[in-house]
Recover the amino acids of this structure.
């Protein structure tokens, strides 16, 4: 792995360095300490725990890694060599040369760290939001201990079940065995200030307690250790993974966390419930996010062809098929986030194919209605509404692309235009109208749907044009 960036010792403030302990427990005992098949290389939703930890840290803004690895070092390196690309430097330090109970190990680590170091095990799955929260919460001279709020019956330190005594948000001490079951448990994730990391190696003669635990207990006397609870509701969750049951729980939390800022009511309470099952199938099949986008688009095109047939039964079947496409359309983003394979091109392809499918749907409905009404007075109106809906959708797509460029350049002219632009961008990817289309098809009112689609696409395009035009002119002139 590339160590040059780390060896340059560029001064980086804040929390940008992580120290990983994949082979040894932070508070004592080996990593993967339970008698089970679970360990640092155990796969959770297709990615091993060690690799998932590294990629989550990278996604959350960590810019350099130091790995204190045991005899499994080669396996860890191979794990990072496959799958999503690692773009941050990694320094490998063998435990046989840098044991945790040697003060010199911590002196060396303190010299490498600028600001703070996140010291963490890898037998857990945690959110990007948790690391971002820790980066935001660091304070000069203070350490942070992450607490798990969900109690576990075991209080064996080797299981990660160490309980904490907390007063307000301050850590006071580790609790003795058989302490209050409602007390928070220590997660294997601690933030240490670089200037105080040397203290973690002091008192090495006290072999009965791991050095990090000793240091935290001493720092707690001076009130220099805060406790931050990992909380699901804040998107800063942490799930220990030490048993097969924990693997299932971690996968459940990962799927539950798959929410998008742009999803609407139907996505949140219907599509996402079904999409997880398809996402599991796509992951098992090894499909990339872009391949899933194409699958959803192909189903959408088949749906458009069904609408073009012009019969009631074909219309209902096509509407249901389009709803299936909307469900699968959720999966490309889920696969991308779960496997760390997001890309600007993938995001563009998703939005572009959504709009192409929508235009095909509008054209298909118009063709089907015209075929059913051909020879009747006013049959041409359906073709007109279809053309307006298609053109309005295409114009909206072009304007959305322009708005995204303005947003990335921070070029909104006024707060009012920025607010409207953000609102429209947030709602452009909503799939709520797929359920509406099913209802219109069931009640044989596709002509009304087409009129609403034509009017809606034009209104959307006009609002987007109003929101971005002053900003687009300003960005072009600058």
């Amino acid at each position: 792995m590339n160590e040059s960036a780390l060896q340059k010792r560029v001064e980086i403030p804040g929390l940008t360095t992580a120290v990983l302990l994949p082979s040894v427990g932070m508070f004592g005992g080996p990593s993967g300490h339970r008698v089970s098949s679970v360990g640092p290389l155990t796969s959770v939703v297709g990615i091993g725990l060690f690799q998932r930890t590294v990629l989550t840290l990278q996604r959350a803004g960590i810019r350099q890694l130091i790995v204190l690895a045991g005899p499994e070092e080669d396996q860890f390196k191979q794990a990072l060599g496959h799958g999503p690309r690692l773009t941050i430097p990694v320094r490998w330090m063998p435990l046989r040369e840098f044991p945790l109970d040697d003060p010199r190990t911590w002196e060396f680590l303190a010299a490498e760290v600028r600001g703070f170091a996140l010291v963490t095990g890898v037998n857990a799955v945690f959110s990007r939001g948790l690391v971002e929260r820790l980066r935001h919460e660091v304070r000069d001279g203070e350490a942070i201990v992450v607490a798990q709020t969900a109690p576990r019956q075991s209080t064996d330190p080797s299981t990660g079940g160490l309980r904490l005594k907390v007063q307000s948000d301050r850590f006071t001490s580790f609790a003795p065995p058989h302490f209050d079951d409602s007390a928070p448990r220590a997660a294997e994730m601690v933030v240490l200030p670089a200037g105080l990391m040397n203290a973690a190696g002091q008192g090495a003669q006290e072999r009965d307690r791991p050095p990090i635990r000793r240091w935290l207990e001493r720092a707690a006397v001076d009130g220099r250790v805060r406790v931050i609870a990992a909380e699901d509701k804040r998107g800063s969750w942490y799930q220990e993974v030490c048993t097969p049951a924990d693997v299932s729980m971690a996968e459940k939390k990962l799927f539950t966390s798959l929410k998008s800022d742009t999803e609407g009511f139907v996505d949140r309470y219907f599509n996402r419930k079904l999409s997880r099952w398809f996402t599991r199938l796509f992951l098992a099949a090894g499909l990339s996010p872009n391949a899933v986008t194409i699958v959803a688009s192909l189903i959408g095109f088949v749906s458009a062809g069904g609408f073009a047939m012009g019969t009631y039964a074909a219309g209902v079947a096509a509407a249901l098929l389009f709803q299936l496409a909307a469900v699968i359309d959720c999966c490309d983003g889920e696969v991308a986030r779960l496997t760390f394979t997001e890309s600007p091109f993938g995001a563009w392809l998703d939005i572009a194919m959504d709009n192409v499918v929508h235009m095909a749907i509008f054209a298909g409905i118009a063709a089907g209605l015209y075929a059913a009404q051909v020879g009747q007075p006013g049959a041409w109106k359906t073709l007109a509404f279809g053309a307006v809906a298609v053109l309005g959708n295409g114009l909206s797509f072009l304007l959305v692309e322009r708005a995204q460029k303005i947003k990335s350049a921070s070029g909104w002219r006024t707060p009012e235009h920025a607010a409207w632009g953000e609102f429209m961008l947030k709602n452009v990817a909503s799939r709520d109208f797929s359920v509406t289309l099913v209802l219109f098809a069931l009640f044989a009112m596709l002509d009304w749907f087409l009129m609403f689609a034509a009017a809606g696409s034009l209104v959307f395009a006009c609002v987007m044009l109003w929101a971005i035009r002053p900003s687009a002119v300003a960005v072009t002139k600058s």
Summary: Residues 446-477 form the longest helix (32 residues). The two ends are 41 Å apart (CA to CA).
